[in-house]
Amino acid sequence: MMYQSKISRMRKKSSDEQWLFRALLVSLFGLFIILAFCFRVVTLPASYGIVPIEIPVLQASLQDPAFHQFREGTTEALTSNTPTVVLTTDAFFFGDLSAFSENFSDTSNKFIIRHASGSPQLSLLLQQLTKWVTNRSHESNIPLSKILVLIPAGEIPVPILTEVIAGLRSSPHFKRVVLSSGLN
Question: Sign of the C-alpha dihedral, residues 153, 157, 161, 163?
Fold first, then answer.
């Protein structure tokens, strides 16, 4: 009889399913990770930018290797007369691209719009920029450019930069905003 009770106790211990709860918990956690990854993939947008911008690269026309006599060319190009806006933590500066490259030390070819209590005055910038571009076009016979170069300082937060780009693109004078760098 004693052996019979030991055998039944042994069967009871070996049939105890201690691992069932742990295995169930691990499998549910794994299923949650897989579902979270799938939901993230499904909800990602096709384009990653909030505001479409362009980053300038070296201009090079490409030959068609299939001999269709097609040669890719540029439709617009950055020149020394391209309007340029520099965004710093204190103010907007605007002028020609040459004013911020070749003639950087000359202060008479740049215009400034200071920020009011730390916030950029985007509407005032758009008004002054529109006046400057149209006056320059009429007085100096410089053709209107649909491209604007934006040079932000390194410490400008991305939400403010995005808002400025969206505001500049909303102007009827500029359909392309080229994001540049080099201001430290």
Answer: negative
Residue written as tokens 């693109």? 169
Do 30 and 37 touch, CB atoms closer than 8 A? no
pTM of the model: 0.60
Report DSSP state, residue 108.
T
Count the Cβ atoms, other than its own, within 10 Å of residue 118. 7
CA 184 to chain centre: 19
Residue 15: what are its φ and ψ, rounded to 5°? -90, -5
For residue 154, the cross-strand partners are none
For β-strands 176-179 and 147-152, DSSP reports them as parallel
Q: How far is CA 129 from CA 103, 144, 147, 167, in A?
A: 19, 12, 13, 12
184 residues of the chain, pLDDT tens digit each = 566 666 666 665 555 566 677 888 889 999 999 999 888 877 776 555 555 555 555 556 666 666 666 666 666 677 778 888 888 888 888 888 877 777 777 777 788 888 888 788 888 888 888 888 888 888 887 777 788 888 888 888 888 888 888 888 888 888 888 887 765 5
Run of H or E including 176: strand 176-179
For residue 87, what is the enclosing H or E element? strand 83-87
| Contact status, residue 136 vs residue 128, Cβ threshold 8 Å | no
